From TrEMBL:
Chief location category: membrane
Gene Ontology annotations for the cellular component aspect, listed alphabetically: membrane
Protein's name according to its UniProt entry: histidine kinase
GO molecular function, one term: ATP binding
Keywords: ATP-binding, Coiled coil, Kinase, Membrane, Nucleotide-binding, Phosphoprotein, Transferase, Transmembrane, Transmembrane helix, Two-component regulatory system
Family annotation (InterPro entries): CheY-like_superfamily, HATPase_C_sf, HATPase_dom, His_kinase_dom, HisK_dim/P_dom, HisK_dim/P_sf, PAS, PAS-like_dom_sf
EC number in record: 2.7.13.3
């Protein structure tokens, strides 16, 4: 290929590049006169390439932009100052038809030695670019504002969390104080009524005492339910996981309610289906609380007929088993339209039921929440005037229980007859000459008097103190006289020095006297707190005489001169 042919080919390629170029390319002289233009000039500015030749490049700039445009050209064309050569300049261009275009021009000097006074201008339509840039700017601005709002929200959230934390702390303290303030007087009410009952012969007076005790116990249960629901809602409720017998709990429920069922003329049945595990892992206290609530409701809302307590196992898979407790009755039933509200707080089947049968509507709510915390489900089926069936379903893995094989199917019925539960802790267990010496510490005079009566009834000597400091001083005095105390009953909430401080002080002095914590606080953490302070055992108010006696006897030294069997 000859040099002439090469030149022709290069010219052809140059024309093709200019033809398909998106940007507008123009050749101008030192005065800005257009010598040649690419075909894209018609698309961008509406001028034909041959039509624009001879026009000044200024024709592409809008009138408002001419001053800045001329300054840029002056710096590029025929000037010794070449700082602007190759640098872009944005301006508002104008279409031949009069519309405006956002443009950017870059001027380059022609390097051909024979054409020192010629320049190449590249003009680009940047309308879409500016739109994108503006959108990006708007987005970045919105993002900036969003970050400011997010920071503000985070600050507000942290402030709100602090408020909630303070509120929860205040609520927790309120619940603790409420529990203490309610349980302490209830201990006196129930305890003194039981003591008074022993000294009355009149049938009417005994009935009055029974009414006081029954209603006092009911009031205490309602308060306990409300406090438990509050603890659950606060996330301050604790669930234990220990081994226990599911059938033993069922029998304990029967023992608890057979007398009540008999008084109403109801049959109370228990049924065992197939093989029941001898033990499972869960919280026996909470499980019993749920079942007692369900059985209590069944008896309350059943005027005639029967109440059934059943337990059975269901297989979901080889390693996945379900344990079910079923409480059914032949009572008034629940209307279909009320079923979906039955587990909501303070829900009643209807106002007449509330008047006829009593109840606060918190028992089923608490039971439902407790079963959920135990990892199970509480469901209900009911037909009006035919009865209700409540089913507690717990998932028990194979690894969490051992099977019992000695009981495949049983059916017990009280049939209105009350089985007598023998009391293994009658007063004959304590001989008249028993000399156990007890230090009783409580800041409430009535409680000191009540517990002193109970302990004296057991044949034990009692010394009292009203706060922890008095108790520590009495222990020191007894040590000096070598007239030691065999057991300390210690209230934990007291002025001057509380039970935790007194117990820690005694333990730090190497004193190993058994100390039984007596408190109105009932959380699992409260028990752990008492034991961590050095207490030997924990009892929560109110305390029944039989329970107190069993614990006291358990920790008294087993010597003939102290306790006779």
């Amino acid at each position: 290929m000859t040099s002439h042919q090469v030149k022709l080919f290069d010219d052809y390629l140059a024309r093709q590049i200019l033809k398909f170029s998106i940007d507008v390319s123009v050749a101008i002289d030192e005065l800005g006169v257009v010598l040649m233009a690419s075909e894209s000039v018609s698309r961008v500015f509406g001028w034909q390439p041959d039509e624009i030749v001879g026009e000044n490049i200024r024709v592409f700039a809008s009138e408002s932009q001419l001053k800045q445009f001329d300054q840029y050209l002056a710096q590029c064309l025929g000037s010794e100052n070449e700082n602007s050569i190759g640098h872009a300049h944005q301006f508002k261009g104008i279409h031949k038809g009069g519309s405006y275009i956002a443009c950017e021009i870059t001027v380059w000097r022609d390097d051909d030695s024979h054409r020192q006074n010629r320049y190449i201008g590249i003009i680009r339509d940047i309308t879409e670019h500016l739109k994108s840039k503006n959108k990006l700017g708007e987005y970045l601005e919105r993002l900036k504002q969003s970050r400011k709002q997010l920071k503000r929200k985070i600050h507000e959230l942290k402030s709100a969390q602090k408020v909630v934390a303070r509120a929860n702390q205040a609520k927790s303290e309120f619940l603790a104080n409420m529990s203490h303030e309610v349980r302490t007087p209830m201990t006196a009410i129930l305890g003194y009524s039981e003591a008074l009952k022993e000294k009355l012969d009149s049938k009417d007076n005994l009935e009055f005492i029974d009414i006081i005790q029954k209603n006092g116990s009911h009031l205490l249960q309602v308060i306990n339910d409300i406090l438990d629901i509050s603890k659950i809602e606060m996330g301050n409720f604790e669930i234990m996981k220990v081994d226990f017998s599911p059938t033993k709990i069922l029998q304990e429920i029967v023992d608890e309610f057979e007398s009540q069922a008999s008084q109403k003329g109801l049959n109370l049945y228990t049924r065992y289906h197939d093989l029941i595990p001898s033990s499972i892992q869960s919280d026996p206290l909470r499980m019993k609380q749920v079942l007692m609530n369900l059985v209590s409701n069944a008896i309350k809302f059943t005027e005639s007929g029967s109440v059934y307590l059943e337990i059975r196992m269901l297989s979901q898979s080889k390693d996945d088993r379900l344990l079910q407790y079923i409480v059914s009755d032949t009572g008034i039933g629940i209307p279909k339209e009320k079923m979906k509200y039955i587990f909501e707080p303070f829900a009643q089947v209807d106002s007449s039921s509330s008047r006829n049968y009593g109840g606060t509507g918190v028992g089923l709510t608490l039971s439902h929440k407790l079963v959920q915390l135990l990892g199970g489900n509480l469901s209900v089926q009911s037909t009006v005037n035919r009865g209700s069936v409540f089913t507690v379903t717990l998932n028990v893995d194979e690894k969490n229980f051992s099977r019992q094989s000695d009981k495949s199917s049983q059916n017990f019925c009280t049939s209105g007859a009350v089985r007598r539960v023998e009391n293994n802790h009658d007063d004959k267990n304590v001989s008249p000459g028993a000399r156990g010496k007890i230090l009783l510490v409580d800041d409430t005079k009535e409680i000191r008097k009540l517990f002193s009566y109970m302990l004296n009834k057991m044949g034990l000597e009692v010394v009292t103190a009203s706060n922890g400091k008095e108790a520590v001083d009495l222990v020191h005095e007894a040590t000096i006289k070598e007239d030691f105390y065999h057991l300390i009953l210690m209230d934990m909430q007291m002025p001057v020095m509380n039970g935790y401080e007194a117990t820690q002080l005694l333990r730090s002095q190497k004193n190993q006297i058994p100390i039984i914590a007596i408190t109105a606080h009932t959380l699992v953490s409260d028990r752990e707190k008492c034991l961590a302070a050095g207490c030997t055992e924990y009892l929560s108010k109110p305390i029944k005489y039989e329970v107190l006696r069993e614990v006291v006897h358990r920790y008294l030294p087993q010597k003939k001169e102290v306790l006779s069997n």
